[in-house]
UniProtKB/TrEMBL annotation:
It comes from the Eukaryota. One of its GO terms (cellular component) is extracellular space. InterPro entries: Haemolymph_juvenile_hormone-bd, To_sf. Residues 1-30 form the signal peptide. This is Circadian clock-controlled protein. Gene3D superfamilies: Haemolymph juvenile hormone binding protein. Keywords: Signal.
């Protein structure tokens, strides 16, 4: 194997850690690091990076072991994958017509649930590009947290804050993860919404207690019309949150210790 290929293998190992290590929830039964390592070797060892069946092997492993997303791997400082948690995510936007205004949205203490019931439908590794791509389907995905919204429209200032929750049904997304440098460098995550079969959203105190129920009814009844506008913002919010989460838990995970590069 060339030096370039070996380097790419090591980098891709780090990328694969992003999704593989969360499979190993059976570690809840482990009592020390030796047992943890044995479990990781058993679960990851059959998938060989240079094999033509590597992507198929990883896809099968993801679906076989998804029930363990809730445990994480304390021995390697990997946090649970179910639920995802993000302390802080922000989004800034200006309106299409210059001078009309802009808005600033901050989401805090966000919980993302539904991963344990999801199914990975596609997995593809791109060794030379230090990239992995996988698609998932969620029968139901829920998110909740606190929001803070500030906007300026034609010189008028608007400020709102409160709790919010979002439920997505028959939902699918594709996640693309790229390592921007060598082993141990940052991971960049992009999430693209593929399909939403149903959506319900509630944002407390957005328009006031007397109007909020009516606003919820209107938004939840007409969400499909607004999806082309909302989808890019949802993609950006989720991608930002996942970039922080994945770097915190998986950036330095020693996957090459357990996964064969042959």
């Amino acid at each position: 194997m060339s030096q370039r290929s070996f380097s790419n293998c090591n980098s891709c190992c780090g990328l694969l850690a992003v999704i593989l290590v969360v499979l190993c929830g059976s570690l809840v039964h482990a009592v020390n690091e030796n047992n943890t390592d044995a479990d990781l070797q058993r679960l990851l060892g059959p998938c060989h990076m240079q094999s033509s069946d590597f992507d198929k092997c990883i896809l099968q492993a993801l679906n076989d072991l998804k029930m363990y997303y809730k445990t994480g791997i304390p021995a390697y400082h990997v946090k649970p994958f179910e639920p995802h948690h993000s302390d802080y995510v922000e989004l800034r936007r200006g309106f299409a017509v210059q001078g009309i205004g802009n808005f600033y949205l901050v989401l805090r203490n966000v919980f993302d649930r539904g991963w344990s019931n999801s199914k990975v439908t596609r997995f593809q590794s791109h060794l030379d590009e230090q990239r992995i791509t996988f698609s998932q389907h969620f029968p139901e995905k829920t998110l909740e947290g606190q929001y803070s919204f500030t906007a300026s429209v034609l010189g008028t200032q608007i400020q709102r804050q409160g709790s919010w929750n979002l439920t997505l049904r028959d939902y699918s997304q594709t996640t693309d993860i790229v390592r921007v440098g060598g082993p141990g460098s940052l991971l960049k995550v992009h999430v693209e919404i593929d399909h939403i079969g149903g959506l319900e959203i509630h944002a407390g105190n957005l328009l006031g207690p007397s109007i909020n129920p009516l606003a919820d009814t209107i938004v939840n009844g007409l969400w499909q019309l607004g999806l082309p506008f909302l989808k890019p913002m949802l993609n950006e919010l989720v991608s930002t949150a996942f970039t922080d989460i994945f770097n915190e838990s998986f950036r330095y995970f020693p996957l090459s210790k357990f996964l064969s590069a042959k």
